[in-house]
Input
Amino acid sequence: MNSQKTGVLFVCLGNICRSPMAEAVFRHLVEKKGIQDKFRIDSAGTGDWHVGHRPHRGTQEVLQSHGVSSAGMFARQVKASDFDEFEYIICMDDSNVTNVKGFAKGNYQSTVNRLLEWSTKAKLKQPDANVPDPYYDGRFEYVFQLVEQACTDLLKTLEARIVERNQ
Ligand code: 4NP
Output
């Protein structure tokens, strides 16, 4: 049996609004299934302005309103070793995809793409497949709905891959 953890890193610009929301929701879904031993879950920002800060108040409030914990989360910046530790680097928008690749030292194996690419349903709501930034427009509940839908579908796919790998 392969007991290696699957690393999932969520990435946005500031690591205070969208990617901590995705980290908290994904961890919540994983814990509800009791499969937390199978995953290493984290989030980071491509920018460094908010390093050490707690998630944005809007993110904390929307998570709390849905019964999702944001305890113990503090912003950090992406680092080169993330490409060794995380098999999946899941970005909120296309600029995050471009910018996160700049942190890699040489070749990497990680899959780098956008969260909404994992979900047909979320892409119907947001056809450009970018998670809009509530830092600018305050739409934390809308972003929560997108993130929850996409994280649910992401988890389904990753669980199936883990089962396949362990066969
Ligand atoms: P995030 O949102 O990338 O979803 O965390 C932002 C947070 C902070 C800033 C921009 C976006 N900022 O310019 O400080």
Summary: The helical segments are 18-32, 57-65, 82-85, 94-101, 120-125, 134-137, 140-166. The first strand starts at residue 6 and ends at 12.
